[in-house]
């Protein structure tokens, strides 16, 4: 049987970067040999360094540690519920059910009997209470702390399998958004018997000799180095013991870092990788031509991928002049050709959009006759027009100088076009489009400064992702609420809400939507407020939404089948999402050697 080694890698320059041994002697443990056809090999999502960091820190709530998003969500940890975003259906897991009080001021949750931690302790309502209240009281560096402080009053335990969450205000979507979404809601329950008395912001949750990190998942961490992380299947997993689920097919899950698109493509061709990091369209198509076992969400291109609930957007810092001038923002919008960005940057694989409403919700909320679609059509922002650029620049007091560049009081307006590395394909075409419209647009270097800068407001404009509406319009609309705004120099609590927009009229609409369940009824208060909020957001344009992300999530069917796809959409296909745990439990071995 084949085992992964450097000899198995192709010899191109992109491949001279890592070995992936399945037998490893580390400072922590001697790891047994497992055949390749019983091992699932994955990479973290997105752009990553060539080596893992924080290899001895497995705190799933530290924002500076990414293990929960990279692998813990489908190995060590599990969630109370998951959601199949393709149809919105709830999938109970650690819990069986939940119910809101009529006034939405509380929610009761019934846990599944027989769930156990990996050290044999029972999983109980005390663990859930401990976790939610610990997050409520946690400092800002803990993921979700601001949100839990906003919503959670306290938690009452009725008995080991039943609890009630009391809210500070009506919270009709708290369970979905924080405990069940299956997306980037990385809020696993912590074992109280291990975490109680620890400082949640410093506890590393790591000691292999003690079996840490402890979770309820079907896998345990057995080795962690800068080059790979290895998780072995637990024979004593509670799901098998209770008859809830069969054991997942892979006996081992190995996570390896891959720092470039080209390297990932080569490793897919060589059957060294089963899934993980997305591929660019050209890389996927070239790799697929050499390895027919590679697949993505759709069977044909150019739109191979699935929506990921986010879009690319040009964010304006509302607390910095001149970007607090709506005329300038509108002029920039009409200088942008979204279809051109899509073709040049992404080979036609994305979807031009004017607001961050995901395709996961479009079939329900953006149909013909929808009040929301009417507002989008009213503004018609996807309409590049030089005459409108001139109209709004003139309104803002700008005129073209002798060089044909927009200027005010003799000073050209400079647009510093910045992106993180994972949105780099937008950089050159967007810069050129703005130059063509008369702006002094500068293509900024791609480096790591974008993260602290967007966090602390040290930017003028930034191309970033806006992850929002998977299920309903509020999920995106809320990001322009002033509760996410902070003074310059102070960290924003949510990076997808980094425009620092403040509008009391808008806040009232969002607060009203927050307090009631979503409704598609055009005559409902919810829908009326949603349409009014969308109208303000497009009128004031704190950011320009550009393209909805459709990543070419690539899976290798040489050793494993059962991956989600448009033909079998049992769950969304993204490895960094909580619901990818369902994929692990759906995989089947091909028996290939």
Features:
593 residues, alpha+beta, D-Maltodextrin-Binding Protein, domain 2, Dipeptide-binding Protein, domain 1, Dipeptide-binding Protein, domain 3, 3 domains, 4-stranded mixed β-sheet, 4-stranded antiparallel β-sheet, 19 helices, 23 strands, 26% helix, disordered N terminus
Please state roughly what percent of the residues sit in beta strands, choosing from under 5%, 5-15%, 15-25%, 25-35%, 35-45% or over 45%.
Answer: 15-25%
How many domains in all? 3
Q: Give me the count of strands.
A: 23
CATH class of the largest domain: Alpha Beta
End-to-end separation in angstroms reads 5 Å
Major β-sheet annotation: 4 strands, mixed
Helix-strand makeup class? alpha+beta
Overall mean pLDDT: 93
Description:
This protein has three domains: 1-50 and 218-301 and 553-593, 3-Layer(aba) Sandwich (D-Maltodextrin-Binding Protein, domain 2); 81-195, Alpha-Beta Complex (Dipeptide-binding Protein, domain 1); 306-550, Roll (Dipeptide-binding Protein, domain 3). The protein has 19 helices and 23 strands. It has a four-stranded mixed beta sheet, with no helix packed on it. A four-stranded antiparallel beta sheet has the order 4-5-7-6. It has a four-stranded antiparallel beta sheet with strand order 13-20-12-19, covered by helices on one side. A hairpin with a 5-residue loop joins strand 14 (399-400) and strand 15 (406-408). Helix 2 crosses helix 3 and helix 17 runs antiparallel to helix 18 (525-540). It is globular and about 75 Å long.
